[in-house]
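Objective 1b: paired records.
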Amino acid sequence: MTEPSEQAKPADAALMAADAARAAEAPLLAVEGVSVRLGGREVLHDVSFAVGAGQFTGLIGSNGAGKTTLLRVILGLTAADSGTVRLAAANGAGHHTGQRARVGYVPQKFAFDSDMPMRARDLVALGIDAQRLGIALPSRRRRERVEQMLAAVDALAFADTRIGSLSGGEQQRVLIAHALISRPQLLLLDEPLANLDLASAQGVVALLARICAEQGIAVLISAHEMNPLLPVLDRIVYLAHGRAASGTTQEVVRADVLSRLYGRHVDVLHVHGRVLVVAGAGDDSDLEGHEGGVSGGSHSGGAEVVL
């Protein structure tokens, strides 16, 4: 029997070549050979991918795969042990301008006290002055920008509600508006769909896809479940054991590519419009399980659902 690592090498080489060709087209973000060790453990190993202007990219992996660490490296909050991250702004023709791309960020966890006297519009307004010192003075221009961002994320109806009283989906819309008001060219989101119900998650994904298309903003969104994102993804960066495969979903979400990434044989199944990545339950290696709503290893056919 052919080992997964041997069988996937030609596909991986073609995938890396295709990704390098796309990276040459003046990407906003280029991650090249990034490795990170934390607490004596290698969290990321030789991760490379690129994100172009207006592209919607999913950063997919289980809990502990290294998604948040990778976003922190891109933001400059965690130092890489090796490799480089380039954030280069591009003009309408796709050529670099020599300036650093502006980046917006929506963090993974943001707990708001229900008694905190801050309205949704107040939080959005704080994004205007994130890079400035001193107290911002009210102005009609500021108010108009806040209204525009609230309208862009369909949040005008609860703009005057205390942020701690909003639902999870409503808070995510406000946080996205807060990140967008500084007019970023790249928007990073760390697990924005976590703990949202299905309807709220679908609403946030549709909102991000619309903003990406209408404003030409590149989106890099992390998630442990790719199925809610599949209808809108241009590209995917799939993380497992700190290693990454990147490209289109058709290039990456394949048995040969993911088998090499995990270091063991896995299958990719398409069931009722969903994608499942499964591995034999008899294999005792430490493949992470992270398919939304499915856990355990006793599935029919001796398969364990892992994504």
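Objective 1b, second protein:
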Amino acid sequence: MRPALVRIRRDFLRLVLAAAATLALPAHAAFHLWTISEAFSNADGTIQYVEFQALAGGQQFLAGHTLTASGGASPTRTLSFATDLPGDTTGKRFVVGTPGFAAAAGITPDYTIPAGFLNVGGGSINFAESSDTWTYGALPTDGRSALLRSGSTAASSPTNFAGQTGAINIAPVSSGPDVNVQGLWWRSPANSESGWGMALTQQGPANNSILFVAWYTYDTNGNPLWLVITRGERVAANTWTGAIFQTKGPAFSAVPWDPAQVTATQVGTGTLRFTDANNGTFAYNVNGVSQTKDITRQIYATPAGTCTIPAN
């Protein structure tokens, strides 16, 4: 075979291989074929979500891209997607939600946004550097309805990437005073699960207080586990929701104590609802495990002391 013909065939083969490699590239980097389908917020912005619907398969490569929200007096809020979605996107949806979303909706969001990410009065959402944008009007704040992309409203029905569909049905935040829940709490009925409990600290105005929760329990290996809700936000009358953190730091005997070694890792979300000053429920999702338990105030001496919350 003549050398010129050999070179032609070799060059042709290289072109074919290069073309095949080029055609394969989008499958490894596609992310942009999503549409924003619905958005939700309660009145104070502590429970919010945005749902996305895939327009094609192979769009799971979100890492490194952003979601931004603008509107209202606050500066633009930005979520940077740290990871890709876990598989092919054909027929899929995914959800970004605030820390209070999981307990309210009954499903886990695929990504977490801070409370107040969406402006309740209207604004703009920009996905993946303008791959999709939505300028939306005022969000419904009845605690049940979501705003659809069409501009109409419907019962909230967020669906995460795992295919789980949730629903939110919370009462609007009441302006009346809440019951005083500060103190020690454990499983109801009393003594039914002796060995774990919670210490609740309630501060702020009686009609808009916040909770700090220290939850003393055990991990799946039976080792002591200390979890905290550092700021439980009031989302309805006698109802608080917040992110659950696990902390790690120096030994109790460390001298000097180094605060820089203390870390807090979010492991879930929790919601506490109270029917009166002595009874309630604790709904939580921790490391993928969701449960709801009745709780009651722990009385270890009578008369029990009562802490006072300022009226304003």
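The radius of gyration is 25 Å. The helical segments are 3-24, 101-105.
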